[in-house]
Design a protein that fits this description.
Blueprint (H helix, E strand, L loop, with lengths): L1 H9 L4 H18 L1 H16 L2 H49 L3 H5 L3 H42 L1 H7 L3 H38 L1 H7 L2 H53 L5 H42 L22 E11 L2 E11 L4 E5 L6 H6 L9 E6 L2 E2 L5 H6 L1 E4 L8 E2 H5 L8 H10 L3 H6 L7 E2 L8 H15 L3 E5 L7 H14 L4 E5 L3 H4 L4 E6 L2 E6 L1 H7 L2 H12 L1
Parallel strand pairs: 3-10, 3-11, 6-9, 9-10
Antiparallel strand pairs: 1-2, 1-4, 4-5, 7-8, 11-12
Helix pairs in contact: 1-11, 2-4, 2-6, 3-4, 3-11, 4-6, 6-7, 6-8, 6-11, 7-10, 8-10, 8-11, 15-17
Length: 574
């Protein structure tokens, strides 16, 4: 029940709203109490005495009680709906904020579809808790009132009527254990199916290009069949409990009916009393059955809660320092790597004893074959990962001393696979800061050599970009990302193959724009194109996680070492 307590803590701000809904439920119960007794009066008094005025009075009272019951039931359901929606939205926002704070290492091993399924788990868990609390209060309140009334009417018949319910407790206790296990498997199969569907939909163009639709259909079909089979197993477990419980309650009804009518025949109980007793028993069996249903719903809620809390409980290892943070502003100094070692998995170092200095206000190019560790090295600066050993200094401070938000707000990072979000071109360029003027946006677009293209579009900057800007070419998407980088105007720039998808003419203009950016900025650029690295103030050559050469272009070429070898191979392939 630990996860249930943690879910209850998450919704503690909404307790006062739940109490209001519970008060309405309590009033509903009180309104229901007289209704069976009216049947007794009708049968024992109004009918034998042919009392039409009493009949009219009772019918009118029943009408008004039914009317108020309908209004209050609507209010209760509306309160519960509002509470459930508010709490689900609140938890959804908090869960997303939590996911935003988790490091790259978390996402390296997670499927996007599975994380989307965890959102559904969060919503289901919270709405489940709201429903359980509402039903639990209502059922317990009914169990408080109606047994007292039944015992007052006939305590012997009450004991006989309740005789079978302890067996129901045993049945549902055993069923609930199996429901939790099966419910967990169903949730996992559903998450796997969502992940598979998302993966296939994102790759639909590749699927059609390769002509592998039949193969993919078979894969998705297997996932669907696996999910359906697990859902059927869960249904069989649930239905087996329901059947056993219905048979048990049928036996109880037979016992109650047999002895109840004997009391009437022997004159120990009036017919009106028996009818009223039967109706009150219906009121009592309803909440008892509801408690059993609540116990089943609780198992499903615990399954969803466990999956949600499994992610929500993960603490990011990359956090602000506990003893206060330093603010990153301007160019505080050189970026220095001292004895840096890093691995994604223990025992397999990707970076080995890296010692390097990236001078402030200068451009450093990092060169090396694929897999040398270039991108990994750059990812350590904004603390997307933390090194396994060693330290990174910016100026005279350890990078871990800076507030994460402050650090990253001063670093512009153009990744190899930069994300372009759904929306207009204008909203994409000004993302995170809509206060930029149109003049600023146009200047950035001009520097990125994309202004002319945007102006040719019918809607200009109001043109809607498709998902991942699929309606743009790869080069256009890259230039759009570069324009966004220019607009951010940050003092430290990390550029991972910034011109790899550009044609020679566009690359020429972008490099001219980069020359403007180099003034009073620290730039670290990963590049394979020699035209990009020739003008760098410093070149670092990497191979298999090690730095093998450092120097300017002319010096390293004269050494006839790794850079010269790289240059020759690139020239021969051109």
């Amino acid at each position: 029940m630990l996860n249930l307590r943690r879910l209850l803590v998450l919704i503690r701000n909404y307790w006062k709203y739940l109490i209001r809904a519970s008060i309405v439920s309590l009033i509903l119960i009180i309104i229901q109490i007289p209704t069976p007794y009216f049947s007794k009066i009708l049968i024992d008094s109004a009918f034998p005495n042919q009392d039409m005025s009493l009949l009219l009075l009772i019918v009118l009272m029943q009408f008004f009680l039914a009317f108020f019951n309908a209004i209050l039931a609507m209010l209760r359901d509306y309160f519960q709906l509002c509470i459930g929606l508010d709490m689900s939205l609140d938890i959804g926002r908090r869960f997303f904020a939590h996911l935003e704070g988790l490091p790259f290492s978390f996402y390296d091993k997670r499927l996007t579809g599975d994380l989307l399924a965890r959102f559904n788990d969060a919503y289901s868990a919270i709405s489940g808790v709201v429903g359980i609390l509402g039903n639990l209060f209502l059922s317990l309140a009914q169990l408080l009132f109606f047994p007292i009334i039944l015992f007052i009417m006939n305590w012997k018949l009450t004991l006989l009527a309740l005789l079978v319910y302890p067996l129901d407790v045993v049945i549902y206790r055993e069923i609930n254990k199996r429901l939790f296990i099966r419910g967990r498997l169903v949730a996992e199969k559903r998450a796997a199916l969502q992940a598979k569907l998302l993966e296939m939909l994102k790759g639909i163009r590749t699927i059609q290009a390769l002509g592998i639709e039949t193969h993919v259909e078979e894969q998705v079909g297997k996932s669907l069949d696996s999910y359906a089979e697990e859902q059927l197993r869960l249904g069989r477990v649930s239905q087996s409990g329901s059947v056993a419980s219905r048979i048990n309650r049928a036996i109880g009804t037979i016992i109650f009916t047999w002895f109840g009518w004997q009391y009437v025949i022997r004159g120990e109980m009036s017919l009106g009393n028996l009818i009223a007793f039967t109706l009150y028993m219906g009121y009592l069996s309803g909440p008892i059955l509801n408690l059993f249903n609540v116990s089943q719903a609780l198992q499903q809620t615990l399954v969803h809660g466990e999956r949600f809390l499994e992610i929500y409980s993960i603490k990011s290892q990359i956090t602000d320092p506990e003893n206060g943070c330093s603010e990153f502003a301007g160019l505080p100094g050189a970026i220095t790597f001292s004895g840096i070692t890093f691995h994604y998995e223990p025992g397999r170092d990707v970076l080995c004893d890296i010692n390097a200095v990236f001078p402030a206000g200068k451009t450093t190019a990092i060169v090396g074959r694929s897999g040398a560790g270039k991108t990994t090295l750059v990812n350590l600066i904004p603390r997307f990962y933390d090194p396994s050993a060693g330290c990174i200094m910016i100026g005279n401070r350890n990078v871990k001393d800076y507030a994460l938000k402050s650090l990253r707000s001063q670093i512009g990072y153009l990744m190899q696979s930069t994300s372009i979000f759904y929306g207009t071109i204008y909203s994409e360029l000004t993302i995170g800061n809509p206060s930029f003027s149109m003049r600023d946006v146009e200047q950035a677009s001009e520097k990125a050599y994309i202004l002319e293209f945007i102006k040719q579009l019918p809607n200009g900057y109001d043109t809607m970009l498709g998902e991942s800007a699929i309606n743009l070419s790869v080069g256009q998407r890259q230039r759009l990302a570069i324009a966004r980088l220019f607009l951010q105007n940050r003092p430290v720039l990390l550029l991972d193959e910034p011109t790899s998808a550009l044609d020679p003419e566009s690359e020429k203009y972008i490099q001219m724009s980069f020359e403007d950016l180099r003034r009073e900025r620290t730039i670290i650029i990963i590049a394979h194109r020699l035209s990009t690295i020739e003008s760098a103030d410093q070149i670092i050559v990497m191979d298999r996680g090690h730095i093998v050469e450092v120097g300017d272009f002319e010096t390293l070429m004269m050494k006839d070492g790794e850079l010269a070898n790289f240059y020759e191979k690139s020239a021969s392939m051109a």
